[in-house]
Specification:
Helix content: 25-40%
CATH class: Alpha Beta
Order of helices and strands: EHHEEEHEHEHE
CATH topology: Aminopeptidase
Oligomer: single chain
Radius of gyration: 15 Å
Number of helices: 5
Distance between the termini: 28 Å
Strand content: 35-45%
Strand order of the largest sheet: 1-2-3-4-5-7-6
């Protein structure tokens, strides 16, 4: 298994398909819904590959010079429970680490609060609702991770 920045069009298409299949298809959201959740900011797309196949992925945006947001994180059902999500977040931190403190935020689904807490994220506000998710019992908690400067 390898984790890296998505470079080829094929990797980016497979990442997009994986995000839809894991995050939005079970909620009956349309295939192109990812575009409506995007930001007009610099974007980092990471993929976890197994024999060239995308089995996990993470999309993060740079909000400001030292501030980033994990917008989407998904692991194929067959690979869950193998620390892929943690490895994707760790790879993002390596990619964005600077000689200054970096803040990483995520709007964690209520179903993934424990995952982010185990990685050191702390709550940073109340629960956030989005109509496409609330009807499925999903709310979001803004969470923060402070990444110290690289030595």
């Amino acid at each position: 298994m390898k984790i890296k920045i998505a470079e080829s069009d094929r990797e980016k298409r497979e990442l997009d398909r994986l995000l839809w299949e894991v995050l939005w298809r079970p909620l009956d959201l349309p295939r192109g819904v990812r575009r409506s959740f995007g930001l007009r900011r610099p974007e980092t797309e990471l993929v976890a590959l197994d024999q060239g196949r995308v089995i996990g992925g993470l999309v993060a945006y740079q909000l400001a010079e030292h501030e980033f947001e994990i917008r989407h994180l998904a692991v194929h059902d067959d690979y869950q429970g193998r620390s892929l999500g943690r490895l994707l977040v760790e790879e993002l931190i390596k990619e964005i680490s600077q000689d200054a403190v970096v803040w990483v935020q995520a709007y964690a689904r209520n179903t993934s609060l424990g995952f982010f807490a185990r990685l050191g994220f702390v709550p940073g506000g109340g629960l956030v609702e989005h109509e496409d998710f609330t009807r499925h019992g999903i709310k979001f908690q803004k969470m923060w991770l402070v990444v110290p400067p690289i030595a």
